[in-house]
Amino acid sequence: MEFDDPAEMRRECTERLGEKAGRQFAAMARRGFRLDPTTDDAQATGRCRLGGPALLEPGTPWPEVGGIPLSLHAVLDTDALAPWLGDELPTRPGLLNFFYLDPDLPYEKYSRLHDEPEACRVIPADPARAVETAAPAPARSYPATPVHAAGVTMLPDSWDVNDRDVEYDRDEHWGASSLILDAMGDLDGNTSGHHCAFGWPDTSYAFWVTSRDADGPAVHLLQLPEDSELGWGWGDAGTMYFTIPAKAFATGDFSKAQADMRCC
Predict the structure, then answer these.
(1) Rounded CA gap, 64 and 62, in Å?
(2) What is the arithmetic mean of pLDDT over 178-182?
(3) Which three-class secondary structure string do you get for the chain?
(4) Residue 171: its pLDDT value, please?
(5) How far is CA 218 from CA 76, 84, 128, 198, 238, in A?
(6) Annotation: CATH topology of 2-262
(7) Which of 14, 175, 178, 261 falls between 20 and 30 A from 62, CA-CA?
(8) How far apart are the C-alpha atoms of 258 and 117, rounded to whole Å?
(9) The pTM is what?
(10) What is the Cα–Cα distance from 164 to 154, expressed in whole angstroms?
């Protein structure tokens, strides 16, 4: 769920969920971005883009798994995103390169590699030192597409709400997710099908993307749905989500980032 106006978000929460549960749910809000492709370089947000060559520091090896190079799917310019994220960006990692194993490689031969942690990599780079680095074969090179990052306030999808997060009537609802589905249903999942960064992911299905540990919910980094213009897909109406444990994000350890592909 995303809102252009945080005050409207808080008002919707309290009106629909009641004063106490509404405040609890609104407190879960995170700042994030809609990533809108643009052909106007003046509208692009820093060096943020989908596809194209990677932006890596000289000497950085191209990531691979099982000897197969990964494909570059996006670059986020966190310096350009920092003013909106504020304290929600605890470190300044510069450029973030998002890699994943090409989903169109022959399934029979490469399916086991998709389950390996190395099938996903998020590699930071110093903007002052980063250079365009072309993908080695057989990694796919997608068209370079600048994006405009529109700052929004995001609430979690119903499936990313824990029963301890929001008080609910246990006689009326089977869990906190049931309450959110019932009360916020017409707003739930409205980022489905959109490229998004930070904030909360839209799962659209009955599953959790943002896993939890002792430090709380994982931080959502990037949501990439299938995109026919760019030429990638993730199965039937699939979406790829990049997340990172909260502690690793706080210390800038992007080696702990994970990717999770979900489809119908």
Answers:
(1) 7
(2) 89
(3) CEECCHHHHHHHHHHHHCHHHHHHHHCCCEEEEEEEECCCHHHCCCCCEECCCEEECCCCCCCEECCEECEEEEEEEHHHHHHHHHHHCCCCCEEEEEEECCCCCCHHHHHHHHHCHHHEEEEEECCCCCEEECCCCCCCECCCEEEEEEEEEECCCHHHCCCCCCCCCCCCCCCHHHHHHHHCCCCCCCCCCCCEEECCCCCCCCCCCCCEECCEECEEEEEEECECCCCECCCCCCEEEEEECHHHHHHCCHHHCEEEEECC
(4) 87
(5) 18, 20, 29, 11, 21
(6) Hypothetical protein YwqG fold (2.30.320)
(7) 261
(8) 7
(9) 0.91
(10) 19
Q: What is the pLDDT of residues 79-109, one digit of tens each?
A: 999 999 999 999 999 999 999 988 776 555 6
**Structure confidence at residue 113 (pLDDT):** 74
pLDDT at position 206 is 45
d(CA 167, CA 148): 37
The total number of residues written for the chain in this structure:
264
pLDDT by residue (tens digit) across 101-129?
A: 887 765 556 667 767 778 899 999 999 99
Cβ proximity of 69 and 63 under 8 Å: yes
pLDDT at residue 69 tops 80: yes
Amino acid identity, position 243:
T
Judge whether 221 and 243 are in contact, CB under 8 Å. yes
**The pLDDT of residue 208:** 56
Name which of 168, 221, 163, 194 is nearest 18 in CA terms: 168
